[in-house]
Amino acid sequence: MKPPSKLLSRSVKPSLDRIDLMILDALRDHGRITYQALSERVGLSARPCLERVRRLEQKGVIRGYTALIEPSALGHDIIALAGISMRDPSTGTRQRLERALTANPAVIELQVVNGEYDYVARIVAPTLAAYEALTEAYLADPGFGIGRIHTTFVLKTLKEFEGYPVTDRQD
Q1: What percent of the chain has pLDDT over 70?
Q2: How many domains, in total, are found in the chain?
Q3: With 90 as the cut, is the pLDDT of residue 163 above it?
Q4: Is 135 contained in some domain?
Q5: Residues 148, 110 share a domain
Q6: What's the domain range around 47?
Q7: What's the confidence (pLDDT) of residue 168?
Q8: Which of 66, 1, 73 shows the shortest CA–CA distance to 39?
Q9: SS3 of 4, please?
């Protein structure tokens, strides 16, 4: 078992101790780890380890568990990063657009940002034509108030998002 490293960010709540951070680090890397293996990894017996995991879930530190899926295996051959600029940034228009984007399964990630764009979305599509149809539909609807969508297509992913850093690991 390696010792925990320094925190990368001060945004981690100070109520998380060394063992909590070790649990988070282990679960981020191995979400299907058994409680027995997890307890051995962090140096606790299984019951207290389970109680800590449940407490982290209840506090909202652990939001859930998921499987990492290869996009192309599901026919998502196009991955686009779309910078969306609002023509009409009124509250009602933004809410309509946000509801529509978050409800669309092709929009797999969406952030409100500052700078040149109002939103940045990661969008998947089976073909360029499907991506174009999707963005044209958003642009054509005046109720969404979009001024423009600037698209950058992903050619190759060198590092996938696999979770937020818990500790400053040197391995």
Answers
A1: 89
A2: 2
A3: no
A4: yes
A5: yes
A6: 18-58
A7: 58
A8: 1
A9: coil
Residue 62 near residue 53 (C-beta atoms within 8 A)? yes
Quick: pLDDT tens for 83-130: 999 999 999 999 999 999 999 999 999 999 999 999 999 999 999 999
Other beta carbons within 10 Å of 51:
11
- Residue 48: its H or E element: helix 46-58
* 46 and 80 belong to one structural domain: no
Residue 50 lies in a domain: yes
- CATH number for 97: 3.30.70.920
Cβ atoms within 10 Å, residue 159: 5
Q: Is 131 contained in some domain?
A: yes
Helix (H) or strand (E) holding 120: strand 119-125
pTM of the model: 0.79
128 touches 78 (CB < 8 A): yes
Euclidean distance between the first and final Cα of the chain, in Å?
A: 12
